[in-house]
């Protein structure tokens, strides 16, 4: 069973008088354990698709399934619950809270999981900061960390809620090539060891190369879907 799936999804935005077709009849099924890249020019619909997968945006048409559940008819509260327990987000500008330390940033989404005691939260935060190699920086605020370190805090934060899927919108866009590659290698290691599904958008050909599946988007459509070893299939 797919961990996330969109079926015949279209998304239209109204910009004044103008209708923007951000997604046109997109169908995509992502198997658990995938390391999937979404490539395509700026404006091709990559962020919109990630936002719909992450239930932070609704499609104009079509169906969305997360972890086997049809999320179409859910209320905002129910969607928040699905997100909190299933999905983690990573952004190109890191989106960390500037006044909180690295460990407080990782702890923050855990507050939504009411069943966790303070001690359990502390243990999880320590575990994931260690996983991303930032134990020594637990008390540092984002502005005391390098770009690569900030993105590693964001990865720890995305994983700490035991997310099954991590959605990453251009996670390496604001990093130099070498640091970006390190971030992707960290994500890839977690994908292999823990089986966490990663779906990330990118412009960087080196980053695309690391994916096990590659989706090419253009003008709101999926143009090709490539599976490593299996070659290219047109859609
Ligand atoms: P990408 O991530 O590939 O750059 P996006 O998904 O951000 O593409 O955008 C797809 C299209 O939808 C673009 O034409 C963009 O201008 C438009 N779009 C995205 N978000 C909005 C919005 N909130 N309001 C209006 N138009 C939007
Ligand atoms: P990364 O490759 O993880 O991005 P860098 O090579 O950019 O890390 O950073 C090297 C070291 O410099 C790091 O150990 C980090 O702690 C330190 N550093 C970077 N920026 C700052 C800062 N603003 N304040 C304190 N230390 C910093």
Please name the defining characteristics of this protein.
single chain, Rossmann fold, seven-stranded mixed sheet, four-stranded antiparallel sheet, 7 helices, AAA+_ATPase, MacB-like_ATP-bd, P-loop_NTPase
Short description:
This protein has 235 residues and is an alpha/beta fold. 32% of the residues lie in helices and 30% in strands. The chain has a domain at 35-44 and 75-227: Rossmann fold (3-Layer(aba) Sandwich).
Description of the structure:
The chain has 235 residues and is of the alpha/beta class. It has a domain at 35-44 and 75-227: Rossmann fold, CATH 3.40.50. It contains 7 helices and 11 strands. It has helices spanning 46-53, 76-86, 102-107, 118-131, 147-160, 177-194, 205-209; strands at 4-15, 18-30, 35-39, 61-66, 69-70, 87-91, 165-169, 197-202, 213-218, 221-227, 231-234. The strands form 2 sheets. Strands 6-7-8-3-9-10-11 form a 7-stranded mixed beta sheet, sandwiched between helices. It has a 4-stranded antiparallel beta sheet with strand order 2-1-4-5, covered by helices on one side. It is globular and about 45 Å long. The model has no long low-confidence stretch (mean pLDDT 94). The protein binds adenosine-5'-diphosphate (2 copies). One adenosine-5'-diphosphate binds next to helix 5. Residues 144, 146-149, 179 line the site of one adenosine-5'-diphosphate. It comes from Kineobactrum sediminis. Keywords: ATP-binding, Nucleotide-binding, Transport. This is ABC transporter. GO terms for molecular function: ATP binding; ATP hydrolysis activity; transmembrane transporter activity. Residues 4-235 form the ABC transporter domain.
């Amino acid at each position: 069973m797919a961990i996330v799936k969109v079926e015949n999804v279209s998304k239209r935005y109204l910009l004044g008088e103008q209708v923007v077709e951000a997604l046109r009849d997109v169908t995509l099924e992502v198997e658990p354990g995938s390391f999937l890249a979404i490539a395509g020019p700026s404006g091709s619909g990559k962020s919109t698709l990630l936002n719909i997968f992450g239930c932070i945006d609704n499609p104009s048409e079509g169906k969305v399934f997360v972890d086997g559940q049809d999320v179409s008819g859910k209320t905002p509260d129910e969607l928040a619950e699905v997100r909190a327990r299933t999905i983690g987000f990573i952004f190109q500008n890191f989106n960390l809270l500037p006044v909180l330390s690295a460990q407080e940033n990782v702890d923050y989404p855990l507050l939504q999981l009411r069943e966790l005691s303070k001690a359990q939260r502390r243990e999880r935060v320590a575990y994931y900061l260690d996983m991303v190699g930032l134990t020594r920086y637990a008390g540092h605020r984002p502005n005391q960390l390098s770009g690569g370190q900030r993105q590693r805090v964001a990865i720890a934060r995305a994983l700490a809620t035991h997310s099954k899927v991590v959605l990453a919108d251009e996670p390496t866009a604001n990093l130099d090539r070498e640091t970006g590659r390190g971030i992707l290698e960290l994500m890839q290691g977690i994908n292999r060891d823990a089986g966490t599904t990663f779906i990330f958008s990118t412009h960087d050909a080196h980053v695309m190369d690391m994916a096990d599946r590659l989706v090419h988007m253009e003008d709101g459509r999926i143009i090709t879907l490539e599976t490593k070893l299996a070659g290219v299939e047109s859609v």
